[in-house]
Amino acid sequence: MEEVLISVLIRAHDRREFLVGAVKSALNQTLDRKFYEVIVVKNWRDDEVDNFLEKNNVINLFKEDIAGQLILEGAKASSGNVLSFLDDDDRFLENKLEAVYNNFKKRRKLTYYHNGYSAVDDSGKPVSFLHNTIDFGMSNISIIKKALRTDMLARISFFQDPIVFSMALDYGEKIVDDKTKLTEYLVHQSTSNFLGINFAEYKERSYASYKKYLDNANMAVSLLKRRRAKNYMKAIIGDLKMGRFQFNPEIKPDHVLNFITCRHIPRKRRWIQFKSYMALKLFPDKFRPIILKKREEQFKAGKDN
After folding, report:
1. pTM given for the model
2. Where are the domains of the chain?
3. What's the CATH number for 6-191?
4. What is the spatial distance between Cα 144 and Cα 102, in angstroms, rounded to a whole number?
5. Which whole-number Å values give the CA distances from 252 to 142, 238, 302, in the listed order?
6. pLDDT tens, 185-244?
């Protein structure tokens, strides 16, 4: 790409306590400010925060809507040809945007760049949180603006990161998965689905989330055009259903072949998920109690970390 201008797009929905820290991390970059802009889209107003944004030449937009509509609002207001997303409770390391700039500058026909991250708690202490796939974490994703699908963005309420990745696959050209850690992912009460609840409540809440994820994934499949993009999203649907099948035997997983052949999902995860699914399908009375007990142990261990 000959000329690169990055638009950093930060969304803040309801939460107020983290936004200024996220913005400061986007402003405190080794990349010259002339090569990027910062845009905040939020559904609340606060004089102190708004004055801070104005003072630092941050574009400040107000929007009350679903996640995809906030992304769309920011994209419409952006001047850049590359979008780097940042969740309001995450942080960029100071060399993040320089790495994004150099990758899009040097790599011809690069559509999508994904970087690694470090998980930390409120105090900045490293915590155990491993989900290092090419489609995880909006704050790890940079994509050329023309690859975004406005028809899909307008309908996304959950599952933004894999759906944005599917847009890159649908657009074509190059994708890069760089494991260099350029983002801090903050693990706190708001990011957890299980802090302060028991395992039974977790199963109930996770089922509600599962249905939202599934609705968004099915929407994406219906709108994607290229086979590889559709197959990827079908693999995600297969993964969702096989995982939920452990709790809900009435669910009938489909797209299993798409899942086990999807190279964008780690091989180890594919093997474990498929093995568990087949065990439950063939010998449900024997294996469901074992698997549910293991899931409960994992849940409790996660709460204690």
Report:
1. 0.94
2. 6-191, 199-304
3. 3.90.550.10
4. 14
5. 35, 10, 28
6. 988 765 555 567 889 998 999 999 999 999 999 999 999 999 999 999 999 999 999 999
